[in-house]
Specification:
The complex is a heterodimer of chains A (about 300) and B (about 625). Chain A is of the alpha/beta class and about 300 residues long. Chain A has helices at about 35-45, 95-100, 140-145, 155-160, 170-175, 185-195, 200-215, 220-230, 260, 290-295, and strands at about 20-30, 50-55, 65-75, 90, 110-115, 150-155, 245-250, 270, 275-280, 300-305. The longest helix of chain B is centred in the middle third of the chain and has 24 residues, at about 220-245. The chains are: A alpha/beta (about 300), B alpha/beta (about 625).
């Protein structure tokens, strides 16, 4: 079946003509937020609209949160979209979609998000036992229910299935095309200007896959939803108090400094007598590294059972 | 008004049905503010342009380098003062010249600017300064309009890319007509917003030549005393000019409220209060006070809407006119339609909008991080182990101040690290080893005089030069240490080791940034050395000039003891797997992100990280 033949509702096509349409595109540095917004801006221009496209470079490039405002209409003044006035939020990464959701118009805004998760390094900082990574706990099903008009699709898996995960952005453009009043062939013509020549066919298939998916009724992929739910209600979130004991045999320690230098959490130090001591007991995770590396067997760690009172 | 809306609606109809027939494309080319400024300068016939990269100004010089080399010489300079001095030289020689920089770059160039304003120009000279309200990528949000008043240099404020092009083009005429340098003040929002721009043609003014005029060109006290009164005369003449400039927009609307504004805030005012009377000024300095007086008389109440400092408001009030402004609008951060609306609400001009309860969502923090395989990572991992007092500097590596590397204690301004370390050492209060870390481009920008200072004053510090062969933070620009210039041709290359030795440093060692053991050892030895020691940590940036991607590594989960040692690199390719060991997550490597730098493998105490076997 061919997504080109389908009639889409285009909820953002026939509104108050004097007001510009606001599309906020968000993601993580390096994902191609800029490419998506350039395609949209070029398309809007070719359809006869004034377009303003605004983004911030610099620190955002280094794996940080990236956003691009695209506004089009008969006349566009402000380059940025006020909070709560985005007609559409397109998220290339799930948590970024959640972060920018408050920019979406409450009444009739459309949310289109890839459910793929890019967990930032800082989310793995919790060193307590049985800690879970810090990530958006809201499930796609919950968020889609919240916004009313939401599409949460696993574009990255769809793109991987088509042969290259990098066309996930084009899958999302396909989904986006169903809520804007532009013909699919026009979208494809503009996309072809922005992608390498040899990937034209792949991008075309990716666009149609996204468009096909969006016009079908099933909007939240069951697999992605359960996965996230499972993460949310994980029983392993029970934290226990430090249940280990680190002891240093002062008579055996010769102050070689190896444990101090190698402790991943920087909790050991040499005291005035050049003997190792546990300076920050709270930070100790009982990883045993110092115990194993000590050439004099001067350090000993005793661990208590990991989880207590689970039932 | 109804008629206008009617026209718009009917114009819109065929577009909404465009699925059947393509509508006429809008005229103009989509350009960012920076690209438009470059285009305007090219159209004005500039012959020389110089800059030091700095967000959000960098793309101006990069765009200028896209124009033919026969049209203009464009160059990266070692710092902003050098760039401005190069432009001043070109102006002396009778051609039009441009220097561009970010707002804090003007601090570096200020010494030259403060003399230049007395000297004036021969060929037109324009300084483009890009402010960063909201501090997206800077160390402060200083307001260049105050600087322009201080230097008595006119400060043009374009509101969009089209104006940026036209104002830049005309700024050179203005510069020559009034014998003054001209500042074009952009902001992040203008520089990085793309909108449709109608282009013009390039017209090169007849070639000038050096004009011998010592009383104007040689700023000794006797000459400078004669030049200062000319500045006062020039200010008055510019004031009169800006009352009649084509870029003044007096839009008559409601009589009860008038808005005075300039630059990008104009767009926010039009968005939020389109029916107000508006006086949009082309320049924040000098202000056409007579015109402003007439505008104030024409309406009942006047608000000044400006970003950051009350630069216009203060001067208008000082002239005895009754205006309001910063009582309702913030002095900090970037303006936006919602901020202007909130200000107008608190001023009682707009009805308060019903408050919408924010959704209670909890996305994770996502601060920017050093790239996977970033050569800076190991330098800071070594410092983390050394437990040193580290004076940092400006560059990507400032990110090492955050968890998990958390090994930078200070960051002040370009080149500050070395002299800050000297001061910490001379204060005599610090027991830890004192280290300064500075990138290659930053070292060339402002790090050499303080290094000489450190040697001259025999400071007991260690300097780590993080040489990644590029200006990375701003997106990969060449500098004198890369051996290539702005247009990509080969040129002389600074040898850091020789240079450091020539400054008198006795202990110098160059280390491969990917060699964990050598890096630890070099840092320990350097810290133990009494006097100035320099470690050059050497590896190219993984993004520029070429994106580096080697075969990825893999964690052999059965041997991983979940000690999290590798996680302390903060590498974005490293994450947790669901597999646990004694209550902690084992580590998993994202093959798509891993570039195979092997730092984690070298750090791993259980030797469980190896190249992946297919």
């Amino acid at each position: 079946m061919n997504a080109l033949d389908k009639e889409s509702a285009s909820p953002h096509g026939n509104r108050d003509a004097a007001r510009p349409t606001n599309v906020l595109i968000v993601g993580v540095g390096g994902q191609g937020v800029l490419m998506v917004s350039k395609v949209l801006a070029a398309l809007c221009q070719s359809e006869g609209f004034e377009v303003k496209q605004s983004e911030v470079h610099g620190m955002a490039k280094r794996g940080g949160s990236v956003f691009s405002h695209v506004r089009f209409g008969e006349q566009v003044w402000s380059p940025t979209i006020p909070r709560g006035e985005a007609d559409i939020v397109v998220a290339l990464e799930w948590a970024e979609g959640v972060r920018w959701l408050d920019h979406l118009k409450r009444d009739g805004g459309t949310f289109i998000a890839d459910t793929q998760r890019i967990v930032p390094p800082i989310s793995f900082r919790n060193r307590t036992r049985n800690a879970a990574s810090a990530y958006a706990p809201e499930t796609p099903a919950e968020v889609v229910a919240l916004v009313g008009n939401g599409f949460a699709l696993d574009a990255t898996s769809m793109a991987t299935g088509l042969g290259d995960r990098r066309v996930a952005n084009t899958v999302l453009l396909g989904a986006l095309s169903t809520v804007l009043p532009f013909a699919a062939e026009h979208w494809l013509a503009v996309i072809e200007q922005f992608v390498p020549a040899k990937t034209k066919d792949l991008n075309r298939r990716a666009f149609l896959a996204g468009r096909d998916w969006a016009v079908s009724a099933e909007r939240v992929p069951a697999a992605a939803a359960t996965d996230a739910v499972a993460q949310k209600v994980t029983a392993r979130a029970i934290e226990t108090a430090p249940a280990h004991l680190l002891t240093i045999n002062e008579a055996w320690c010769k102050g070689c400094d190896i444990c101090v230098k190698m402790c991943p959490e920087r909790c050991l130090s040499l005291n005035a007598r050049m003997v190792a001591e546990l300076a920050r007991p709270d930070a100790c995770t009982a990883c045993h590294l110092c115990e194993w590396l000590c050439p004099d067997f001067a350090i000993r760690i005793e661990s208590a059972p990991a989880v207590k009172g689970a039932s | 008004m109804d008629h206008v809306l009617e026209t718009r609606a009917s114009a819109r109809t065929p577009i909404a049905e465009s699925s059947s027939a393509p509508a006429a494309q809008r005229a103009g080319r989509p350009l960012t503010g920076n690209e438009a400024i470059a285009r305007g300068a090219w159209e004005a016939g500039i012959r020389v342009a110089a800059a030091y990269p700095g967000t959000p100004s960098t793309e101006i010089m990069e765009s200028l380098a896209d124009y033919p080399a026969e049209d203009l010489h464009a160059q990266w300079s070692t710092n902003e003062k050098v760039a401005l001095d190069v432009a001043i030289g070109a102006s002396f020689a009778g051609v039009r010249a441009l220097a561009s920089m970010k707002h804090v770059g003007l601090n570096v160039a200020a010494d030259a600017l403060m003399s230049l304003t007395y000297i004036g120009v021969n060929g037109g000279l324009v300084i483009v300064v890009c402010d960063d309200p909201g501090i997206h990528s800077s160390q402060n949000e200083q307001d260049t309009r105050l600087f322009s008043r201080f230097a008595m240099v006119p400060c043009l404020e374009p509101a969009d890319a089209q104006e940026a092009l036209v104002m830049t083009r005309e700024a050179f005429d203005l510069s020559e007509r009034f014998d003054t340098p001209v500042i074009i003040r952009s902001t992040t929002r203008l520089s990085h917003t793309r909108s449709l721009v109608t282009l013009g043609e390039r017209t090169v003014p007849p070639s000038g030549h050096f004009r011998e005029d010592p009383r104007k060109n040689v700023m000794v006290p006797a000459h400078a005393r004669n030049r200062h009164p000319k500045l006062i005369e020039r200010e008055a003449a510019l004031r009169a000019y800006f009352a009649t400039s084509g870029h003044v927009r007096w839009e008559t609307g409601r009589r009860d409220i008038g808005i005075i504004t300039a630059g990008t805030p104009y767009a926010y005012v039009k968005e939020v209060l389109p029916d107000a009377s508006i006086l949009k000024l082309p320049a924040a300095y000098p202000l056409p006070l007579d015109l402003i007086g007439r505008f104030c008389e024409s309406v009942e109440r006047v608000l000044v809407v400006e970003e950051l400092e009350p630069a216009m408001e203060t001067e208008i009030r000082a002239a005895g006119l009754k205006v309001e402004g910063k009582a309702f609008f913030p002095r900090v951060g970037e303006l936006a339609p919602e901020v202007v609306r909130a200000g107008l609400e608190s001023a009682g001009i707009l009805e308060p909008q019903p408050k919408v309860e924010p959704w209670q969502l909890t996305p994770p923090a996502r601060p920017p991080v050093l790239c996977s395989g970033c050569p800076h990572t190991m330098s800071y991992m070594a410092l983390r182990a050394l437990d040193a007092r580290v004076a940092g500097d400006i560059g990507c590596y400032t990110l090492a101040a955050l968890e998990p590397l958390r090994s930078i204690d200070t960051c002040v301004s370009m080149g500050s690290s070395i002299a800050n370390a000297v001061g910490i050492a001379k204060a005599g209060t610090e027991a830890k080893p004192i280290i300064a870390t500075i990138g290659d481009s930053t070292f060339l920008h402002a790090g050499i005089p303080p290094l000489i200072d450190a040697v001259y004053n025999d400071a007991n510090i260690t300097v780590i030069i993080l040489d990644n062969h590029i200006t990375a933070m701003t997106g990969g620009q060449d500098h004198p240490g890369t051996g290539r210039n702005l247009r990509g041709s080969e040129t002389a290359r600074v040898d850091f080791e020789q240079m450091v030795r020539a400054c008198g440093v006795k202990w110098v060692r160059k280390v491969d940034s990917y060699n964990v053991a050598e890096m630890y050892q070099a840092c320990r030895e350097a810290a133990a050395f009494k006097g100035v020691a320099v470690v050059i940590s050497d590896r190219p940036c993984v993004l520029d000039p070429v994106k580096i991607k080697g075969p990825p590594l893999e964690v052999q989960a059965k041997n991983c003891i979940a000690c999290q040692s590798c996680m302390n690199l903060g590498c974005p390719a490293l994450g947790w797997s669901e597999d646990m060991f004694e209550g902690h997550h084992k580590v998993r490597i994202n093959a798509a992100l891993c570039i195979g730098c092997t730092l984690c493998a070298q750090i791993c105490p259980s030797d469980c990280i190896h190249p992946s076997v297919q």
